[in-house]
Amino acid sequence: MSAVRDSGPAPGRKVLRAGPAAWTFRPRVVAVPLVGAALLVVVAAVNIGKGSSYIEPLDVLRTLLGGGDRRETGIIFDLRLPRTLAGVLVGAAFGLAGAIFQTIARNPLASPDILGITWGAGVGAVGVIVVGGYRGQVSGAAAELGVPLAALVGGLVAGLLLYALSWRRGIDGYRMVLVGIGLSAIGYNIVYWLLTVGDVDDAARATTWIVGNLADVGWEAVGPVALALAVLVPVTLVGAHTLGGLQFGDDTARGLGIRVDAARGGLLLLAAALAAVATAAAGPITFVALATPQIALRLARTAQPPLAGSMVLGALLTVGADLTLRLTAPALPVGVLTAILGAPYLIYLFVRSRREVRA
Amino acid sequence: MTRLRAEGVRLGYGERVVVDDLDLDVLDGSVTVIIGPNGCGKSTLLRALGRLLRPKAGAVLLDGKRIDRLPTREVARVVGLLPQAPSAPEGLTVADLVSRGRHPHQSWYRQWSGGDEEAVRSALAMTGMDVHAGRVVDELSGGQRQRAWISMTLAQDTSMLLLDEPITYLDLAHQVDVLDLVRRLHTERGTTVVMVLHDLNLAARYADTLVAMRDGRVVARGAPGDVLTEQLLSDVFDLDAKVLPDPVSGTPLVVPVSAHLRPDPS
C-alpha cells in the first residue's frame, strides 16, 4: 500500500509511503529527472539514428523496443547502441559522483575531474595501455578487463590519497579542492610521461582516450561499466541518506548521530569508484561531473544537489554533447566540447568562490 | 539524579591538554551554565559531554555507560547539541533544516513518519518559527537563525540539550529572547540543559546551577547566588567588580569596576 500526501510542517514537500517505508520529496525534485529522462530518450534516439545510413528516431525507438526489421536491428544493436548507451551510463555516473563530492566538500568546485580522481583513473588505464600494450602482449579478456580494472584501482588510490591528505580533524572543502588540484597535476604528468615512453601506436590510442571519447566505444567497454554501475549506484543511493547531515559542519553532523568519518569516507570512495569506472570506459569527459549537479540543484531548487536529477542531466549532457559534435565537427571527440564548455564555467566558479571567502 | 557525568576527564587537542582530571555531574531536569574566562576549557568540556571530543583519560558516562562506546545514533536520541556558530548550506529552508533534526530517528528506507511530522511541527511552533518555515536560512536575521537552529535540536526530541554560546553575536533583546526560549523548554518539556555563556548576569539569571571554570578546572559550582561572589570574580576572571542583587530577578548582578573609575588610592 502506498500513499502520497502533503507533509504538514514542511511546505512544498510530499510524503510517499509504502508499508513501513516512507520518503519525502518535492514535486520539482521528481520533475527534473522525469523531464530530463524524456529529453534523453529523444536525444539518444537521434544520436543512435545518426550514421552512414540514417534511421528515423521513431524507427530507432521502435527497434529498441523490439519492433524493428532485421537490417535496423543489426545496425542499431551491433554498431550504434554501444556509443549512446556508454554516453548515458558514463554521464549518469559522472553526475552522481559529482553530486556526492560537492555535497561532502560543501563546495561546487569539488568534482572528480578537479579533485584528481579521473586523472588517477587515467594513470591506471594509460599505464595498462602503454606498459601492457593494449593490442600487443595483453589481448582479449585481459585487455577488456585490464583497462577498466586498472582505472578503477587508480581512481580509488587517488580517492584515498585525497581523503588522507585533506583530513585534518575533519574535512574542509577548500583544502580538499586544493589537495585535489595538486593530485590532478601529479596524475596528468604521470600520464604524459607514460605517453612519451610508450610505443607510438599505443600512445596514439591512449591520446584519444585522454580527451574523453565515445566514438570507439563498443560492447566490450559498455559491459563492465553497466555491471559496475548496477552495483555502485544502489549502494550509493542507500548510503546517501546521511548526505543531508554531512552538509552541516562536522560537529552538527555528529550531534545528529552520523558517524561522520565512516559515512564520509565510504561515500567518497563510492563516488571515486563511480568516476573511475566511467573514466575507464570513455576517458575523462570533463565538465559533466562539475556542472550537472549544480544545474540540477538550480532546476530542482534544493539546497543539496539532487542525486537522481544529477544522474539524468549528466547522461543528457554527455549524449547531447556527443550529438552536437557529430552534427557540427564529427572529427572531434566529445571531451573537447565538454572541456570548451567547462573552462569558462570553472573560471566563473573560482571568481564566485573568491568573493564568498572575502565576504 | 544524574544521567550525564564526566569522571576524571583529561581533554585536549593533539599534545595540548586543556582540561585535566575534571569531574562534573549534570543534574537531571536542571539548567546548568558553564562560565569562565576565554580559553578556560568550557567549550572543550561541553564538546566532551556531547561526545564530539574523546577524553584522553577518564570518561564521559551516559546512564553509566561510556558515551564514546554507545552507538552514536542512540546517543543522538538522548543528547542534542548545538555547536558554536553552526553553518547551513546555501538555500536550505527553515522547514528542511528542522526536518534534518529527525535524522537519528530515521533510516534510509524510513525517512518520514507521523512522529517526524509531529516533532517538526511542535519544534517550529515552540520557537515561533512556524511562520518562517518556508524561508531560506541564510536570509534570516541573526535571532531568527538561532531560533531555527534551536528548532532543529528540538525536533531531535532529546531529553538533554547542550548549547555552546547560543547567544553570541545576538543583540541584547534577541539574547533574552533565546534564553527565555531555553528556559521555557526546560519548564514545558523538562529538558536538561547545559550551556556555555559569556554574559555573567544572564548566566546568573537563567541557570539553576552555575559551574565556574579556570585553567581547565572547576573552581566553584552551585546556585548562582552562592557561586557569583566578588571574591570568585576576582579569583576566576581577575575582575574587580561589585555584586548587587538584580532588581528584576534577585539573582547576582555583576557591575565591573573600571580602572578609570577606581577611587584614587592617595
CATH class categorisation of chain A: Mainly Alpha
Query: Could you name the CATH topology of chain A?
Result: ABC transporter involved in vitamin B12 uptake, BtuC
The residue ranges of chain B in which pLDDT falls below 50 over 5 or more consecutive positions are none
CATH class of the largest domain in chain B: Alpha Beta
At the fourth level of CATH, the homologous superfamily of the largest domain in chain B is P-loop containing nucleotide triphosphate hydrolases
Q: Let me know the number of strands of chain B.
A: 12
What tags apply to this protein structure?
A: 359 residues; ABC transporter involved in vitamin B12 uptake, BtuC; 4% strand; B: 266 residues; Rossmann fold; 4-stranded antiparallel beta sheet; 32% helix
Task: Describe the model.
The complex is a heterodimer of chains A (359) and B (266). In chain A, 74% of the residues lie in helices and 4% in strands. Chain A has 359 residues and is mainly α. Chain A has one domain: ABC transporter involved in vitamin B12 uptake, BtuC. Chain A has a three-stranded antiparallel sheet. In chain A, β2 and β3 form a beta hairpin. In chain A, α1 packs antiparallel against α3 and α9 runs antiparallel to α12. The longest helix of chain A has 36 residues. In chain A, 52% of the residues are buried. Chain B has 266 residues and is of the alpha/beta class. Chain B has two domains: 180 residues, P-loop containing nucleotide triphosphate hydrolases (Rossmann fold), CATH 3.40.50; 71 residues, no CATH class. Chain B is built from nine helices and twelve strands. Chain B has a six-stranded mixed sheet, sandwiched between helices. In chain B, strands 2-1-4-5 form a four-stranded antiparallel sheet, with helices on one face. In chain B, α5 packs parallel to α6. The model of chain B has no long low-confidence stretch (mean pLDDT 91).
